[in-house]
Write a structure and sequence with these properties.
It contains 16 helices and ten strands. The chain has helices at 4-9, 22-30, 33-43, 50-53, 58-65, 100-109, 118-126, 134-145, 147-152, 214-229, 241-244, 246-254, 271-287, 295-307, 318-323, 348-381; strands at residues 70-73, 76-83, 88-94, 129-130, 174-180, 192-198, 204-209, 234-237, 258-261, 340-341. The strands form two sheets. Strands 1, 2, 3, 4 and 10 form a five-stranded mixed sheet that branches. The longest helix is centred in the C-terminal third of the chain and has 34 residues, at 348-381. It folds into two domains: 22-151, Endonuclease III, domain 1 (Orthogonal Bundle), CATH 1.10.340.70; 174-323, Ribonuclease H-like superfamily/Ribonuclease H (Nucleotidyltransferase, domain 5, 2-Layer Sandwich), CATH 3.30.420. Helix 3 (33-43) runs parallel beside helix 5 and helix 13 (271-287) packs across helix 14 (295-307). Helix content is 46%, strand content 13%. With 382 residues, it is an alpha/beta fold. Bound molecules: zinc ion.
Length: 382
């Protein structure tokens, strides 16, 4: 099936989708032996009887069993999929076999893909594509065999601190500020990464900076984060000197931000931040070797990938949590998707309500599970 070298050597073309015309999407399906068969079936009003298809492949049968969900729009085969986040019915383009590698390269390996794990990669595919068996072997194997991911996912043997759970009730109530690096200096002179994360929504921004002087950190935080998202009630940092400096403390005071920090005796108290930064750090370190001198150019794309992917603990994307809507990503096919709104009149307000409601409880439950998991891991390593 997939050859590792093939994955690495295939050129990555970000605008692949946008360069395709509806006719090409149609033709690609007609060139696929299974999909063209389904298209032929869908032309007739009757679903084929079982005896007519029983001798065919498992994939034929998978499509056949979803007869009602398959629909042909302007000659192109789609599957209806209800997005439980937005309650919209989306149309997934039924992806021909020949295009799967390319889609995986875009949604997993490319700078917009960010080498996210199996679950998140699947979630990104689901918003756009479908093919029989997509959620089982193919994608999982792709992620498992991805050399970048393998390199990064070696088990770490250092013990992790126990996670302390902070209950926060709304976006921007508590924001964490952290510094990664030093990493390879880029052409632009950046050597560190400042990561700002909102506890409630897990919305995160990362900025490449040349140094971590208090002035640099304060400027970035103010100009790039606070000016866009507003003032946080509380900022949590570690013990770094730039955070304990007079300048930083004065800035927080001036802006009326409550500043907390890790106690030197309990540096692990920001468990959430460490975990989150590990995800971001993972993503960054997979790219730095490939983009030694210009990783900062890719950083915004990585962060976009992170924010637009379903967060394991929340079951929502950080984007949705922060803004109440999903962002449109650049890799959607140019084909006009006909989105059928289940409730066209549903006001955005209602959406917001749903947006806030479910988060409290399930999030706390999962937080509890995460904590248990961390406790277990700790015991395992001890
Ligand atoms: Zn990967």
């Amino acid at each position: 099936m997939l050859d590792e070298n093939e994955i690495e050597e295939t050129p990555i073309v970000t605008n692949w989708f946008n360069n395709k015309t509806p006719d090409e999407f149609k033709q690609a399906q007609l060139d696929d032996p299974i999909i063209s068969q389904i298209l032929t079936w869908k032309k007739s009003p009757e679903k084929p009887k079982w005896p007519e298809i029983s001798h065919l492949s498992q994939h034929h049968k998978t499509y056949w069993s979803q007869w009602e969900r398959l629909t042909v729009v302007e000659g192109i085969l789609y599957r209806k999929w209800e997005n439980t986040t937005t309650n919209d019915i989306n149309l997934q383009y039924v992806l021909p076999c020949a295009d799967r590698n390319r889609v995986l390269l875009l949604l997993h390996n490319d700078q917009l893909g960010g080498h996210l794990g199996f679950k998140r990669t699947i979630a990104r595919i689901r918003h756009r594509f479908y093919w029989a068996g997509y959620n089982t072997s193919f994608v999982e194997r792709w992620c498992k065999r991805c050399t970048e991911c393998q390199k990064r996912n070696q088990p770490s043997h250092h013990t992790r601190g126990q996670m302390k759970s902070y209950i926060v009730g709304e976006p921007m109530e508590r924001v964490s500020l952290d510094i990664l690096g030093p990493v390879t200096r880029t052409y632009k002179g950046n050597k560190y990464v400042i990561v700002v994360t909102d506890y409630f929504t897990r919305y995160a921004e990362a900025y490449g900076v040349p140094d971590i002087e208090a002035q640099t950190v304060a400027d970035k935080l103010l100009e790039e984060f606070i000016c866009r998202y507003g003032l946080p009630v509380q900022i949590h940092t570690d013990q770094g000197s730039q955070f304990t400096s007079d300048l930083f403390i004065q800035m927080c005071k001036k802006l009326n931000i409550d500043k907390t920090r890790n106690s030197p005796f309990h540096p692990q108290s920001s468990g959430l931040v460490e975990r989150l930064n590990r995800t971001i750090e993972d993503m960054i370190s997979k790219f730095v070797p490939k983009h030694q001198k210009d990783w900062d150019q890719y950083l915004p794309y990585l962060m976009m990938a992170y924010r637009s992917s379903v967060h394991e603990t929340l079951g929502e994307t950080p984007c949705f949590m922060m803004m109440g809507r999903e962002v449109r990503l650049p890799e959607g096919p140019k084909v006009k998707f006909k989105v059928v709104h289940v409730n066209r009149l549903k006001p955005f307000q209602g959406n917001m309500k749903r947006w806030y409601q479910p988060v409290g409880e399930p999030a706390q439950n999962t937080r509890f599970q995460v904590r248990n998991k961390l406790d277990r891991e700790q015991t395992d390593h001890d």
